[in-house]
Structures are given as structure tokens and as C-alpha cells.
């Protein structure tokens, strides 16, 4: 797109014609991760000040949609997949396979740029972590989280998520 923009410029600051021109000139890739896995990663990275996962989840629920961090806001509210036609949607857990395809499409050498972990190792680790962390939550917290992420669960193929149960 011909117009120079600062890193801080948000898409919403442009008019519809500019937005359409910009989005049409880029390859749009959306990286999707199970929202419960995003919560676990955020907690483990120390982004919450809570001593336990359960109390961290309560902070997330109390903050809600408007006061929440981008680290745990629903993706649908951040990336607008119903309004923006993404060229690729890459699911965490299938990164190696999907990134290889993306890199080849871009004409880049796929082999040397891919992460070392295999997708099955990542999936197994998060499955185990999810079981442990999910068991710490109350029934009410589980229900509230499922409601909070209902649009992500509807928009993306996350049928294996603990929140979709």
C-alpha cells in the first residue's frame, strides 16, 4: 500500500477505501490458538499477578471484554475474522505443517525456518497442562470461560478445547 504508516497506526484510523486497498494488497494470515492455551501461556509467563491459576482466571473474568488484556481477549474481538477475509488461518498445534506451506508459497526455504518441536509434542504438552489447570477451576469459572470465548469457539475449529465441553 502506497501510504506510509507508523507501527502504532490502527486499521480503524483509515477510511473504508484505504482499508479495502490496504487489505487487498497484503497476504493476510491469522494465527489461531485455543483460548484456554492462551490463558495458560499468559499465566505461566507471569503476566497475571495471581498466585494461582484459578485466581488468575477470576481476574480475567472480572476484567471482561473491555478491560482485558490482548493476551486473553477473544480473537474474534481482536482480529475480526468475519469482516476481514484472511488468506490463511494457521492453527497452533499444526504450525510445522502449515508454516511450511506458507513459507513455500512465499518462495522461502521452509526447512530451516520451522520450529524444532514437532506438533505432536506441542499438542501433548498442552493437553497435559490443560487437564491440570482445568481441574483447578470451579464449575462456575468453567461455564463463564466457555461463555467468554463462545465466539472464538464458534468461529474456529477448536472442538478439542476444554472450553467447548
From TrEMBL:
Residue ranges spanning the membrane: these are none
What keywords are annotated for this sequence in UniProt?
Carbohydrate metabolism, Glycoprotein, Golgi apparatus, Membrane, Signal-anchor, Transferase, Transmembrane, Transmembrane helix
Family according to the record: Belongs to the sulfotransferase 2 family.
Question: Under which EC number(s) is this enzyme classified?
Answer: 2.8.2.-
Query: Which InterPro entries does UniProt cross-reference here?
Result: Carb_sulfotrans_8-10, Sulfotransferase
Could you give a single Gene Ontology term from the biological process aspect?
carbohydrate biosynthetic process
Q: Which terms in the GO cellular component ontology are assigned? A: Golgi membrane
Compartment list: Golgi apparatus membrane
**Which membrane topology term applies here?**
Single-pass type II membrane protein
Record flagged with keyword Transferase: yes
Which principal EC class is assigned to this enzyme?
transferase
Q: What is this protein called?
A: Carbohydrate sulfotransferase
Q: Molecular function (GO) terms listed? A: sulfotransferase activity
Amino acid at each position: 500500500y502506497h501510504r506510509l504508516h507508523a507501527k502504532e497506526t490502527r486499521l480503524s484510523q483509515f477510511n473504508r477505501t484505504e482499508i479495502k486497498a490496504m487489505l487487498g494488497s497484503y497476504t493476510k494470515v491469522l494465527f489461531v490458538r485455543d483460548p484456554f492455551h492462551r490463558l495458560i501461556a499468559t499465566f505461566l509467563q507471569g503476566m497475571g499477578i495471581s498466585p494461582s491459576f484459578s485466581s488468575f482466571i477470576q481476574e480475567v473474568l472480572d476484567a471482561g471484554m473491555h478491560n482485558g488484556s490482548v493476551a486473553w481477549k477473544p480473537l474474534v474481538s481482536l482480529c475480526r475474522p468475519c469482516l476481514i477475509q484472511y488468506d490463511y488461518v494457521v492453527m497452533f498445534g499444526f504450525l510445522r505443517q502449515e508454516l511450511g506451506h506458507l513459507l513455500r508459497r512465499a518462495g522461502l526455504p521452509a526447512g530451516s525456518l520451522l520450529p524444532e518441536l514437532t506438533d505432536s509434542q506441542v499438542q501433548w504438552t498442552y493437553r497435559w497442562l490443560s487437564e491440570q489447570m482445568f481441574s483447578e477451576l470451579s464449575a462456575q469459572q468453567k461455564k463463564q470461560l466457555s461463555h467468554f470465548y463462545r465466539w472464538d469457539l464458534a468461529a474456529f475449529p477448536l472442538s478439542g478445547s476444554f472450553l467447548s465441553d
